[in-house]
Design a protein that fits this description.
By secondary structure, this protein is of the alpha/beta class. It is built from 23 helices and 23 strands.
Length: about 700
């Protein structure tokens, strides 16, 4: 395993002058960024006092816990704070993940689980690999992913990339790039299904044995349901992909078996993004490319390499539904008391285990600004008074920054646990300096399921007055009067307890000594291989026990915007929306190589690698008299950002790319000079929970005087 650019540059973040050195208290107006340093004891006393006062006056649901993925360890980051707040009586928490909620919904609806990925080594058994909206050269997807795709290419396996952007992965790993109009991926997948079905290239035996609902999907694809046949010609008008190319790709994917279709998370970060994920899953199913070496089930892409941890359904149809007598009678230390026992949300797949927590006490992440501003009068489960923010630059990284400022300013109190003064921290009343992962011990779990663990041995002592999350929560717990039997233990003891349930860690001391623990596996894991080889004893963990092309659980909801079979649908900020006349460009907000979300901003080495520019096609630039390097304004009804233009054919006409993560930095007129993409994105969400961060319409123009400010 080799560190990427970000890992190699992290030392500049550890020793950066931007590090927070002491606890800070706001003394100016909220958002002015004027703070004074105060002692730790005083800072924690004020936080504890606010927590207790709000609990007493409004109840625990008034406390909004805002966790993020700024730390991926077993102990530090969100974990310590959540365990403490559970003992304090709980809080209101969000549901949904901006990275993958649409994919998660699609995987649960189709397979009943998010464990749909196979080991990367299995790419070498494929005859064709399709990377659809997936850029592992930038986003990594576990350290060995790009290496195994490169090995597949060296072996002669054909690789095709489908993306509105000519990504590094398309350039380096793929044999062919197919540009596609943003947000229309579902239409192309349906057209491929049309070709496969009409030319009898589907796997009838697989469909009959392992799936349910194919006939209903076929009726829709062939036009019998709505009178519109989903042909490649139909899709060409929508996607701008040549119909012959769609037809040939469909034939190639269905006949070059086994074939790998990797449906990335980017196309699912759109309005109705779950439809993209579900359609891709169906394409894998009707070609029989699931549960076999060299095939791929698409979906969430997480893998369980350890056989004893594979999620499978029982022989009964009710197998995935957790029986009442298995539920704990009272909240455990890992349970949020506010959520405990709450009825499920109607829009959730609550009958299936393994998805998003369905409690109706939770608010969608893209809806919490409205929840703060409207509260119970607006139909939300609580009147929110305080934000407790851990491991996230929330304001910067979620949609509609300007509404976020208004919402956060309306709260009674905000505490942020941070390492640098982020745009979010600038709105806090108390900012507490947290140390980095190099200044504490922890265990890192590969989140996509690769067979290893990393022990993060402390490399240096904590700089300045920063503390670990565990240290902070131990001290804060005492001031809250919370008994913490777990957090009171020594750090190493806690890490041993947290790692104990993972039975594949056979030797904790060896892992700590070596810095990693590699799990021995007999063979590379292939998702659903057990189901395909022994279906009678190992059905799929869905309600029917089969792959659900038609999902009865969704049908029960009777919501036309959440159809039981995957469909292509337009929306308010799609290319064919009336709004497109005023805002004709579709905004893309992907990851790039120099940041991890908003972390690693202001790192000199990484700024040298790739300046923050907006990518625009020469055709769109010429229409607006924009040249490469010009300072431009990108705007819509939600806000305006000012950023240099990169005029390039690496993005298709009609789209503009602003890589997510750049820090919000408004001037006196409220124009963001930092190039924060989320000033422009929409804080709504799809019926299945998908975040439409790639579904915003914008327009561009030359900035006044075309000169950089600030």
């Amino acid at each position: 395993m080799r560190a990427c650019l970000r890992g190699r540059a992290y030392r500049q973040r550890v020793y950066s002058d931007e590090r927070l050195k002491y606890p800070l208290r706001r003394v100016g107006e909220r958002g002015e960024g004027i703070f004074e340093s105060i002692p730790w004891d005083q800072a924690l006393e004020e936080v504890a006092s606010k927590l207790k006062n709000i609990k007493e006056k409004y109840g625990n649901p008034a406390i909004l816990f805002v966790p993020g993925g700024g730390n991926q360890g077993m102990l530090h980051g969100v974990v310590s704070h959540a365990l403490m707040l559970h003992q304090f009586g709980g809080y209101t928490r969000m549901w949904g993940a901006p990275s993958y909620e649409g994919v998660l919904f699609g995987s649960m609806a189709t397979y009943g689980t998010i464990m749909t990925g196979s080991a990367r080594e299995d790419f070498l058994n494929s005859k064709l690999i399709i990377m659809w909206g997936w850029n592992p050269a930038n986003t990594i997807w576990d350290p060995g992913t790009s290496l195994w795709i490169a090995k597949a290419r060296e072996k002669g396996i054909k690789i095709i990339a489908i993306d509105p952007i000519f990504t590094e992965s398309a350039a380096i790993l793929a044999d062919k790039w197919i540009p596609i109009r943003p947000g229309t991926d579902t239409a192309m997948l349906l057209a491929m299904a049309n070709v496969i079905i009409s030319e009898n290239l589907h796997d009838d035996a697989f469909i009959e044995k392992y799936t349910i609902g194919f006939d209903k999907f076929k009726d829709y694809v062939m036009g019998q349901e709505d009178g519109i046949e989903k042909t490649p010609e139909w899709a060409e008008d929508i996607t701008k992909v040549d119909s012959k190319l769609i037809r040939n790709l469909a034939r190639e994917y269905s006949t070059k078996k086994p074939a790998t279709l990797i449906a990335g998370w980017g196309p699912a970060r759109t309005m109705f993004g779950e439809q993209f994920s579900r359609t891709a899953n169906v394409l894998c199913a009707i070609t029989g490319n699931i549960g076999i070496n060299g095939g791929y089930a698409s979906g969430f892409m997480r893998a369980y390499y350890s056989r004893e941890r594979i999620v499978t359904g029982g022989k009964k149809k009710s197998g995935p539904v957790k029986p009442e007598d298995e539920k704990p009678k009272k909240p455990r230390i890992q349970d949020n008391p506010v959520d405990f026992g709450a009825p499920p949300r109607e829009d959730s797949l609550f009958k299936l285990k393994g998805g998003t927590n369905p409690a109706n006490t939770r608010i969608h992440y893209n809806d919490y600004y409205n929840a703060i501003l409207e509260g119970k009068k607006g139909g939300y489960p609580a009147d929110l008074k305080m934000a407790y923010i851990v491991g996230t630059n929330r304001l910067n990284q979620f949609a509609n920054v300007n509404k976020g400022i208004k919402a956060l300013k309306s709260l009674d109190f905000i505490v942020a646990f941070e390492q640098t003064m982020t745009p979010t921290a600038q709105l806090a009343d108390i900012v507490l300096p947290v140390n980095t992962f190099m200044e504490r011990n922890d265990i890192s779990v590969p989140w996509l399921g690769s067979p290893y663990y990393i022990y993060l041995n402390k490399a240096i002592d904590s700089l300045y007055e920063s503390k670990s999350d565990l240290e902070i929560c131990k001290e804060l717990s005492k001031k809250l009067g919370v008994e913490q039997s777990l957090l009171d233990l020594p750090e190493e003891h806690i890490l041993r307890l947290l790692s104990a349930p993972r039975k594949d860690i056979k030797n904790f001391n060896k892992m700590k000594r070596d810095g990693y623990y590699k799990v021995k596996v007999d063979e590379p894991f292939v998702a659903f291989k057990e189901q395909i080889e022994d279906f009678e004893n190992h059905p799929f963990p869905t309600l029917s026990g089969k792959i659900e092309i038609y999902c009865e659980h969704i049908a029960e909801k009777n919501n036309p915007l959440m159809p039981p079979i995957p469909k292509y649908m337009s929306h308010d900020e799609h290319f064919d929306s009336p709004k497109a006349k005023k805002y004709p460009l579709q905004l893309l907000t992907p990851h790039n190589k120099r940041r991890t979300h908003s972390t690693l901003e202001k790192i000199p080495w990484l700024e040298e690698v790739e300046p923050h520019h907006a990518w625009t096609n020469p055709i769109d630039a010429e229409k607006r008299n924009i040249k490469d390097g010009d300072l431009i304004d990108i705007y819509n009804v939600r806000g305006r950002i000012r950023i240099p233009a990169k005029v390039t054919e690496r993005i298709i006409p009609g789209a503009i790319c602003v890589f997510q993560g750049a820090w919000y930095n408004p001037n006196k007129e409220g124009i963001d000079l930092g190039g924060c993409a989320n000033v422009l994105t929409n804080d709504v969400y799809s019926p299945g929970g998908a975040f439409p961060l790639n579904s915003s319409l914008v327009e561009i123009e030359l900035a006044p005087n075309n000169k950089k400010e600030g």
